[in-house]
Amino acid sequence: MNFSIRTLSKVLVLLTCAMPAVAQASISTTQPTDSLAADSVKELDEVVVMARRELIKSDGAKLTYDVEHDPSAGTNTVMEMLRKVPMVSVDGEDNIKVKGQSNFKIYVNGKPDPMLSGDPKAVLKAMPASSIKRIEVITDPGAKYEAEGTGGILNIITTTKQSLEGYSGNLRGGFGNGYYSGSGYIRAKVRNVTVAARLNGYNGSILRSHNRRRSEREDLGDDLNHFYRSDGQSLSKFTYWQGGIDLSWEPDTLNLFTLSANYSKNSTRQTTSQFISMSSVDEVLQWSYNRTFHSHYQRMGVSANASYQHTFPGSKQHTLTLTYQFDYGRTPNDNDQRTGDYHNFPGSHDPFRLHTTHNYYGTHTFQADYVLPLFGEKHTLETGAKAVIRPSRESEWTLSSPDGVDYTDDSAIRLTQNNDVYAAYLSYSVKFGKISGRAGVRYEHTRLGIDYHRLVNTGDYKDFEQKLNDWVPNASLTYNITDGSNLRASYSMRIWRPGVGQLNPFVNDLTYGELDYGNPDLKSQKRHNVELKYSNYGGKLGGELSVGYSQSDNQITDFQFLQDGILHSTYANVGHNKSFDIGAWGEYEIISGMTFSAWVGATYEDYRAKTLDNAKAHGWQTTVNLNYGYQMPWKLQFYAWGGLWTPWIDLQSKGSDTGYYYGMSITRSFLPGDKLRIGINANNFLEGRYHGGYTTTGPGFRYAYSYDYRTWSVGIYLAYNFGSLRSDVRKTRSSVRNDDISSGSSNKSGGN
What value does the mean pLDDT take over residues 143-166? Predict the structure, then answer.
């Protein structure tokens, strides 16, 4: 890297130590009151230990980052905020991991968002952090949560509720190098009806992102080595819009009706130019050609939700919740590929190929949840059932000539994905003095399949169907040592189902010398997790220390192999993975109004394979997040952050570089009640571009991928609050969470 770790450490030291001198002249400052405790979803009869600080809190099973009170949220995106969250790591290409695992689920307000099911990285990079309240990291989901996601759950909360009544609204706007964004939120209450509406927008077309990428493949033959190279650069722009309305009606204290509707749309336009060549071992050029991609990717999603919650007389915890949700989405994707400037090229010389993909899906979800407190609410029984029905999930790929006529020697395919899930769960929690425990089990029946409707010269692809039956247990035991500390032990099993991209055997041959296809014989991956965690939030120093062990014997692995000079990429249940992780998070109050926090996580990964010449890989991956905050006089707030991650490890691949990030922000409040706030922030301001990549090795080949792109950013924002309403639309205790679909993408894929 051009920017060394030593330099990064100096930056963090300067940012951390720059402000204490100012603090000595400070008059008394007051920390904002943490207003989120009231709407935090708590596991009934569990011992809950909350952090004393305003930004981070934890109850052992869930860690919460309070984005709303982070001064940098005004100009940062949600992706940038994720870099600050303990147990979460984001690498140079915006690939996200939770406790070292890439197989996790992302919710918005406790339920899936159609925008995040397709390309979450692009959406999170465009979603303004000012539009969300907090980020929850759920590493120990109970039986009421879906079993999908071996790394746990990231839940992005955009709503909150408080105690008073009235009306209120919020307007925000910001701009920086390469983007501008805006958001608005308004809510009102009339008698026992509360309504809220929101709108968020982001446009990254002011200064388009410029990325450079290079890939090299070395084929190791018995006679001569061959080198395949691809050098390219891309320009892209991105727009994102999201809006929604929520409504709640309380006819009395025992009944609650809620309605919500959401609409979201994003659009990405990208131009990529490549020079592709093959050379002999002595660097003599054998053939070459140029290729240009013009792509336009869109994603639109609509969802509607209706819920009814009944609270039985005698206990506020005794509830029955009935929910119905409908989701619809479509993703038209047009790729215009042009090739030319051929030099001894042995493949097709088609000057123009249009690759078009259209995906449509509709989902009906029915869910019932019942909570029964027993024996003076010392015991709690939770049970429920759920059905996810997807009557149509269609995808279509076509290859066309300039005049729109299908190539006779190319392919066109249309398919329908069948992916229905039926589930039921039972959970029991109990508390005896300082000891509390929870045990539960969830059963899920899944029907996976693909129906091929039309084929044109694509080979003999047959319809297929799989039926999966998974029993998913979990248990936890917590000992409350003092009022501010506890010790928690937990076991959980999580699964990861194959997605349509991993199952579909359709062969993608758009790159000469490479074939990419799925495997319809894939089975669900099962992962067993054991964790021991100690939490202490007393005095000026608070934090957590955890150790864990995980094992998966049928891991879904994306792998590559060389056959007849062609590099094949596919998936199989060939991986055995064992991992040991240790994590520590702490926060220290230096002086009144000044805090420093740090997260250090290290995971040892051990990968083995049944095939691939008994491939294996092992090593440590480490993540460090540092945060510094100071509430200064004159209504000024200063915040600095930074961190790093070591190269990741997979069965055949390994990251090439240690990555890093850093930034700072300063905000000031104006007007009575701090209704007006102005802020500015800067990220990676000492370096213009980031360099990274990875290397994949296998029998007979070595593949290296590298990239670099602009990382620095500077932004300014303005926010204005009006009105006095402190009551938001009420939500039922249970909500729909559909997390059973995998995109089938590799964690080695690049970001936008």
Answer: 68
